[in-house]
């Protein structure tokens, strides 16, 4: 709220994790074998095997696979689960390697297209703020 107090009602996502990010990933920072970070727009979806072993996964891995019943981007997962983006990147790669997630990396030619970025910006501006007011346009 404007006075700095939290909005009324329960937190829709829950509290952020108190565990340090490097503990969740066992100190690993390179999310892929090649050492290149997984793009934030990469789509991930749970596999049937991932859903079968859901109860045997660690807390964060469980939350990622459970959230990926529907395809989501790495960025969406990080925001939804309130995890550091690089933690989600590392864990998603681990889950992919174990066959519990399917990863779909977008074509880099399309993701670097300025018109895509413009449509994303326009889409974000079309979302009303907490008061229901649309953001100003350029």
Question: What can you see in these coordinates?
Answer:
There is one protein chain. The longest helix has 13 residues, at 85-97. The protein has helices spanning 21-24, 48-52, 59-67, 74-81, 85-97, 108-111, 114-125; strands at 43-46, 72-73, 101-104. The protein is built from seven helices and three strands, in the order H-E-H-H-E-H-H-E-H-H. The two termini are 26 Å apart. Residues 1-13 have low confidence and may be disordered. Helix 3 (59-67) crosses helix 5 (85-97). Strands 2-1-3 form a three-stranded antiparallel β-sheet. The protein is mainly alpha-helical.
Secondary structure topology:
Blueprint: H1 21-24, E1 43-46, H2 48-52, H3 59-67, E2 72-73, H4 74-81, H5 85-97, E3 101-104, H6 108-111, H7 114-125
Antiparallel strand pairs: 1-2, 1-3
Helix pairs in contact: 3-5, 4-5
């Amino acid at each position: 709220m404007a006075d700095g107090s939290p909005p009324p009602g329960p937190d829709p996502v829950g509290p952020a994790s108190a565990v340090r990010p490097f503990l969740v990933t066992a100190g690993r920072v390179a999310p892929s074998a090649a050492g290149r970070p997984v793009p934030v727009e990469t789509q991930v979806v749970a596999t049937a095997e991932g859903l079968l072993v859901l109860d045997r996964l660690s807390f964060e891995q469980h939350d990622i696979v459970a959230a990926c019943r529907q395809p989501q981007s790495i960025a969406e997962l990080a925001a939804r689960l309130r995890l550091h983006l690089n933690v989600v990147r590392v864990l998603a790669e681990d889950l992919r390697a174990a066959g519990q997630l399917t990863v779909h990396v977008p074509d880099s030619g399309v993701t670097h297209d300025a018109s895509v970025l413009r449509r994303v910006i326009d889409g974000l501006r079309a979302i009303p703020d907490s008061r229901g007011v649309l953001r100003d346009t350029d």
